[in-house]
């Protein structure tokens, strides 16, 4: 049985176990004993912005890292000019082992997985209660992505001045995830503290469709100098300002922790997701799957979960939710 651990780096998955361990690790690599720890907050065309001792340092990957990707959220070791002064460049010589990896495929037919963010603890799905209306299928896809990556999901419902959250909360109640309901007005008052409490001391990735109020939310959470204008439109493309695909990590004001905005991630291709891993987020159902046929999709006549629920081991609504989530893999985003 697989353990519900956070998957480590993609390289580890491709390399057969044992090979890596038997390689003398330090034979060719310099030790870089003077390397300093940093945290990658954004990546732009090969330039990585890192926070090092509170300073913002621009860095490039050292050649010996080869093709290994470095992504937002990575903890890295840097050498070289760490002053953070203009026109200086540091070098990233090591990427520390990742606690978690959030990945996606661009769409369900895309064979390439991309690592979006490393070391996140939580995935916050930001959804407006109206304008634009909630898209439960998209929420489901994000949830599957979170469960697959071993991240705790959090539902942030915005624009509560426009519609009530009850129906949506009822749909997601069987999943028992944390949620918060807020609006721009509440965020200016006590709402920000309520949200921050759920983010404190953690690295939280925010995903949400355009217009849901993500910028408004982020601005209420980060220090004033990190705020951005809402509803900005990119004058060059006319397609809104979100034309880059890199995520951006921002510190929380008045709390420990980071929020990572993912402008390029509006959907989750789920090609890479394994139902056997998603069910690990359902500890009440998971033991029942031991009697399933091999590689059970958990949505087929011989699936043992129906009996498991009939025997009273888990609530039927939990199985319904699991099946709905797994089915989103086969549907197009947004339908
Ligand atoms: N009624 C209402 N409108 C809101 C609320 N929060 C944000 N808005 C409005 O919704 C629009 C989108 O808000 P943004 O914060 O820019 O949303 P976003 O998700 O960052 O959108 P993109 O910039 O397109 O990605 C703006 O016109 C905001 O003024 C809210 O709580 N209530
Ligand atoms: Zn099954």
TrEMBL record:
Statement: the UniProt record of this protein carries the keyword Translocase: no
Gene3D superfamilies: P-loop containing nucleotide triphosphate hydrolases, Probable gtpase engc, domain 3
Domain CP-type G residue range list: 109-268
Keyword Nucleotide-binding: yes
Binding site for GTP: 158-161, 208-216
Domain EngC GTPase intervals: 118-266
Chain intervals with Basic residues compositional bias: 16-28
Record InterPro entries: G_CP_dom, P-loop_NTPase, Ribosome_biogen_GTPase_RsgA, RsgA_GTPase_dom
Cofactor: Zn(2+)
Subcellular location: Cytoplasm
Binding residues annotated for Zn(2+), in chain numbering: 292, 296, 298, 303
Stretches with biased composition (Basic and acidic residues): 1-15
Cofactor note: Binds 1 zinc ion per subunit.
GO biological process, one term: ribosomal small subunit biogenesis
Region (Disordered) residue spans: 1-30
GO molecular function, one term: GTPase activity
Functional note: One of several proteins that assist in the late maturation steps of the functional core of the 30S ribosomal subunit. Helps release RbfA from mature subunits. May play a role in the assembly of ribosomal proteins into the subunit. Circularly permuted GTPase that catalyzes slow GTP hydrolysis, GTPase activity is stimulated by the 30S ribosomal subunit.
HAMAP family: GTPase_RsgA
Record family assignment: Belongs to the TRAFAC class YlqF/YawG GTPase family. RsgA subfamily.
Subunit: Monomer. Associates with 30S ribosomal subunit, binds 16S rRNA.
Name of the protein described by the UniProt record: Small ribosomal subunit biogenesis GTPase RsgA
Protein species of origin: Streptomyces aidingensis
Lineage: Bacteria, Bacillati, Actinomycetota, Actinomycetes, Kitasatosporales
Gene this protein is translated from: rsgA
